[in-house]
Each structure stands twice: as structure tokens, then as C-alpha cells.
Amino acid sequence: MKRVSLAGAGIAILVVLVLLSSSFFIVRQGEQALVLRFGAVAYPDSPVKGPGLHVKKPFIEDVVRYDARLLDLDPPAEEMILADQKRVLVDTYTRFRIANPLLFYQAVRTEDGARARLREIVNNSVRRVLGNVMLPSLLSAEREQIMHEIQQQVSPAAKPLGVAVVDVRIRRADLPPETSQAIFRRMESERQREAAEARAQGAERAQQVRAGAERERTIILAEAQRQAQILRGQGESEANRLYADAFSADPQFFAFYRSLNAYRQSLGDSSTTYVLSPDSDFFRFFTTAPGHH
Predict the structure, then answer these.
(1) How far is CA 215 from CA 222, 225, 273, in A?
(2) Which residues of 73-85 are buried (b: 16+ CB within 10 A; e: fewer)?
(3) Burial (CB count within 10 angstroms: exposed 0-12, middle 13-18, buried 19+), residue 133
(4) 96, β-bridge pairs
(5) Domains located in the chain, CATH noted
(6) ∠123-127-132 over CA atoms, to 5°?
(7) How far is CA 145 from the centre of its chain?
(8) How far is residue 2's CA from residue 15's CA, in Å, rounded to a whole number?
(9) Which DSSP letter does residue 76 get?
(10) What pLDDT is stored for residue 7 in this prediction?
(11) Which of 83, 92, 163 is closest to 124 using CA atoms?
């Protein structure tokens, strides 16, 4: 009898422990929970349970826990068409949190379901906003305003899911590889055309500079020759005047001086042979000194 009593007491204690463990549940920090009864919310007046120890009815009530922290949505990059018909690969990420667990449970049940619905909402909003945006705007400081506009469209669309969208960001916006190659080839052709124009303009300018320099050189040389001829003429005129003055001052000495210059020029070259009569007027100063008869 004692053994039966001990077994019964053990079973009773075990049942009590099971009932106690099924009657209490703990919600950790960073979590929020719903108590469900046969798939429906058990306490409509206070459906959300915060961190701490809570009581539920054993066996007929279940607990669904959701993360109260920020969650991430990081879908793959998708190709989109901008307002200027440029195709770009847009990589976005979204940060959200479960703001209304009851509505979240009724709409999507799980985080995977929420991410699938939210991905569709974000994708549609991004396409709708970028469809009115030019590529230069997307690659400039205007991107911040574009992302703000996307978030303004995503937030109200995600609210029926029990989700609060905190931030939507465009992480990258790249041209597809084939588009990048086409743009690169077009830019290369444009730069080659600009280089050819610059070289042609440089050659034309160089020709103009050379022509101007040659014209100035011709003018300078002509002016120099003119000045030289003027100076030469003035020099010859002055020399003739001096010769005339010297000749008028002493005609006999001037004749003697001119004869000496003639002797120097004609007899200075030893290789030249002259055949002249000694009585020639050319040699008159060899026999008669100036001033003597």
C-alpha cells in the first residue's frame, strides 16, 4: 500500500509540475508574444505580452513569439528602368520592426511571410519612384530625397501587415554590364572625337602662329635692310663729302693717297703679273714725290 501511495504521490507531483510548466511562460527581453487558443487570440483586450513571466491555460493555449528588435530585408539587386530609359541594377535594403503583433499574426503569421510581402511592396515603390527619376539624379545628392520618397510610399503600404518600416535605402545603383560597355565605348568615341578636334585646332593655331611669326620676320628683315641701306647711303654720302673736302684742301696729296691705295690693291697680290711701261702715269709717284717737280 505504501508503494502504491508513493507511486500515486509521484504521479500527482509530476502532473502538478507539468501543469505548472504548461501554465507559465517567459518572454525574454527583445521579444513580444501572443497567447492563442485554438488558433485565435485568447485575450483580445490585452493580446500582446511583453518581457517577463506570464500565465496561460495549459494544453489549450499556445504562445507565439515575435522579435521586437529591428529586422532586415535584403533582397537581391533587380534591374529597373529610369525616366531617361536607362537600365540600372538597384540594390536596396529595408529595416523594419513588428509594431502590431496581433495584426502581424493575422496578416502574415511568420517573419518569412512578412519579408515576402514587404519585398513586393518595396520593389513596387522603388520602380514607381525611379520611373520618374533621371540617372544623374540617382547618382547625385538627390538620392537621399529619392529614398525618403520611397519610404513614404512603403510605410503606409506595410502598416496593414503590422509592420513599421524604419528605413529604406538604395545601397547601390549600377549600370548592367552590357550597358556599361556601350556607355564606355560611346565615351571613348566622344573623347577621341574631342581629341581630334583639339589636335586640329592646335595645328590650325600653330599654323597661324608660324604664319604670323614669318610675316613679322619678313617685316623686320625688310625694315632692317631699309635702315641698312639708309645708313649705308648716309655713310657713303659722308665719305664722299670727306673725300671732297680732302680733295679740295690738298688735291695733290689726295691724288697721292689714291695712288697708294691703287698700288696696295693691285700690287699686294704677288701672284699677279702686270706688263706696264715705266713711263706710265700709274708709276708717276715712284719717280716724283708729291710737292717736287
Answers:
(1) 11, 15, 51
(2) bebeeeebebeee
(3) buried
(4) 71, 165
(5) 15-67 (no CATH), 71-175 (3.30.479.30), 250-287 (no CATH)
(6) 155
(7) 21
(8) 20
(9) P
(10) 65
(11) 92
pTM: 0.57
Sorted by sequence, the CB contacts under 8 Å of residue 90 that are 6+ apart come out as 77, 78, 79, 80, 126, 130, 170, 172, 173
Q: What is the DSSP string of 130-167?
A: HTT--HHHHTSTTHHHHHHHHHHHHHHHHGGGTEEEEE
Q: Which residues contact 93 (CB under 8 A, 6 or more apart)?
A: 72, 73, 74, 75, 168, 169, 171
Angle at 183 between CA 180 and CA 189, to 5 degrees: 140
Torsion angle, CA of 205/209/210/216, rounded to 10 degrees?
A: 160
- Measured distance CA(174)–CA(26) in Å, rounded: 47
Per-residue pLDDT tens digits for 38-95? 777 777 777 777 888 877 778 777 888 899 999 999 999 999 989 988 888 999 999 9
